[in-house]
Structure formats: C-alpha cells, structure tokens
Specification:
- About 10% of the residues lie in helices and about 40% in strands.
- By secondary structure, the protein is mostly beta strands.
- Among the domains are: about 50 residues, no CATH class; about 170 residues, YVTN repeat-like/Quinoprotein amine dehydrogenase (Methylamine Dehydrogenase, Chain H, 7 Propeller).
- The strands form seven sheets. A six-stranded antiparallel beta sheet has the order 1-2-28-27-26-25, with no helix packed on it. It has a five-stranded mixed beta sheet with strand order 4-5-6-7-11, with no helix packed on it. Strands 3-31-30-29 form a four-stranded antiparallel beta sheet, with no helix packed on it.
- Strand 13 and strand 14 form a beta hairpin.
- It is globular.
Amino acid sequence: MDSKHNRLIYSAFALAASAGAWACFTPDRAAELALTHPDPAFVKMALHAHDPNPIPYFGPAGEIPCENGFADIFPCQNVSLVSHLPLPEIGGSGSAGSDSWGWEDPETGIEYAIVGRSNGVSFISLEDPVNPVYLGNMPRPPGVANRVWSDIKTYQNHAYMVADLAGPHGMQVFDLTNLRDVTNPPVTFTTTADYDGFGESHNIAINEDTGFAYAIGGDTCNGGLHMIDISIPAEPAFAGCFSSDGYTHDVQCVTYNGPDSDHQGSEICVASNEDTVTVVDVTDKANPVQLGRMGYAGSGYTHQGWFSEDQAFFVVDDERDESNFGHNTRTYVWDMSDLDNPVLNGFTEAAGPAIDHNQYILGNHTYQANYRRGLRILELTDLDNAQLDEVAFFDTFPSGDGTGFSGAWNVYPFFRSGLVLVSDSNRGFFLVRPDVGGETLPFSDSFETVAP
C-alpha cells in the first residue's frame, strides 16, 4: 500500500483508538509493525505506547561538564549538560515529549524554550540557564485528542502551534511577549488567535523573510503545503495550496540566494515527501510551481532536511532506512546548484544505529536529533563528496542505541547564547552547551529579533 493514498484511513483509525486500544499491541507486535507497516504515523502510535515514558532523571544541580565521556549518566563528547527538566515538571505527566523551538525576547534578551508534548505545549524561561523555570502550558483546544505530534515555529514574537492525528486542532497563535508577565508560574495560557483553515497538520514551517507559514502533512491541500499569510502575526489568512505531489512530511522554505541563477530571489520550498526530495517555487501562492522531484536508492522514509547556509546543498535525514535495511544512521547530501534537477552527492554513515529525526544547519555544522543516540553534531567537511564528521554529541537516551522511537526528538541550535535545546520524547527538556576545541559553536550572525 502507498502511504500517500491511505493516510486518511490510518488517521481515522488513530482518532478512534484510545490509549487502551493501543495497548493491545505487544512490544513484539509493535516491533514487527515497524518493519512491515507502510505508514510511519501508525507505527509510531504503536511503538510509543510501549516506550518507557516518562523516564525521570534527577541529577546534581548546576552545569555538569563532559568529562571522561560522560556528563553525569549521559554519554557525551564536547557537550556539557547545563540543565534538565523531566516531563512531569513541564506539564507532561503521562505524556510524551515531541518537537520544540526557541524564542529570544527582543526587549529583555531572555531566551525561552518552547517544547511540544502530547497534551500541550510548555514554555520555559532560560533567564538563568542552570535553573530554567517552567512558566506554563498551552493546552490542546477543547475536544482535541492527545497525540504525540506537536510542532511549533515562531515569527515576530508569536508562536504558531499545530498537531497531527489529533482532530480539529487548527493552528494556535500565541503572543510570546505575554511570557514577560508571568509572576506566579506555572500558569495556563490562552491563545491570542486561532486559525481553523485546517484541522490536523504534522508540521509547520515559516519563512521569516516573507511572513508566510506552511502547514504540512495535514487534512487539506492533499497533505501538501497549506500556505498562510502571517504578515500580521495575530491575523493569519489563507494564501494558497500546493498539492500536486501529495503528502509532505517536512519542509524548509527560504528566499533563495543560492547558486542557481534562474531562481535567485524566488521563494523556494524544499519538501521531504516520504520518498522524494521535492522543490517548489511558491513565490506566487496562487500558482506554485514544482521545479524538481528526485527519489533515491535505499530510501525508507524521506523525513526532513535543511539547506546549507550558502543554499548550495540540502542535507536530509531518512527516518526508516536504518530499520528497513539494517545499516547505521545515514545523512544524505543533495547538490542544489540546479533546483530543477537536484543531484544526490551521497551519504555519510554514523558509527552506530539510530533513527535520525530532525536536523538544522548552523554555520559549518549540522545539529541532529537522532532518537536513541541523542544530539549529534556533525561538521560539514566536504559536501561535494557528502563527507560529514561527527565532532560532538550528547546522548539523552543512555540505556542503548537502536532503531526505536525513544529519545531525542528535536534540537534547537539557534539561541544567540550558543546554548542548544534538545527535546526528548521520554525525558523532556535538556539544555546543553556544545564546545569544540575550546570554542562555543557559532550562532547565526544573521539572526535578528523583532521589536514588539
């Protein structure tokens, strides 16, 4: 079966299934599903029902350096543990952690972590990074089911939150400057605005240059790009659809300034579409144009990717090639010098097995959340030859590697301070400090905050 054509069936089944119904899948049956079922969303539902969740950790207070390969109980290299909050301490009792993002207050300079959970979204102040403060929770909309997938992005001091397989969630909008006024945490937040142009969405991307959001993997636009004008942040408005390549699992949308002169200045989205890397020109929201669509040998599930800073390459993680084909984690590199015809340069294979989930490029490094092997930081040594070299890591799931859906879900490396957020599906929130050769890894010089 083709998951692109049967996702609605599985979504309906998932909505009808209670937590008790999922318990009928034994761990052995769940493992079998991981190898045979065509739809990863269905598989994750079964596997997460049996992951040890949450796993409490109450280590010593204060920043813990990485010494002799460990920071307390966590294997590491060139990454210290700054702080940690278990799921129950950020509103997540009985829940699973998921995606995450960050925000810097342009007025105060305080950094904040925003962490998705199966039952809401947590907001955490990093004013004192060693002693983070859980400020409160944005709950699911009334009547919406708790499901593990929750995704967040930010734009002009607002957070945009979506959820998948949860029913009529829509897009929640929250004015982040409200975080300044929390005096007695934790509190329950309410939305600033709600967008109901769709019900479910697996993920959301935002092009901060243009003020457009892209909800993807949902119940509109054939699962493709649902485009939203957020130029007025609290007044989101539908802008268009791209649906011709079906379901999109993840996407990055940029104002293109890369080497392909035919498309410079255009708004380009590079989508990870389950079995292809698909390039779309979305400059005209009413008439988006598919430029290139390329599959590759050995694909399991084209999950997510990110442009190099010069936009000459796109680095991709495949979520199911490790479990399907029995090799270690692979990171794929696409040459994007011709957007109409992307070329796969090859891949780098890691020293151990884990599902690679999300990654983001900052400077000359890619920061990867690789589930049971945690945060992995790879130097972009030679992308022409798909050579990436691991220079640092922090394993949030120290009990073992493998291709289970436990451990690090997402990483956010864009804090101006150089601190890195890792959200873990079992252990919650981690704040870490990478250090390579005595130097903190570079933050983006182009990062700008927007005054309220």
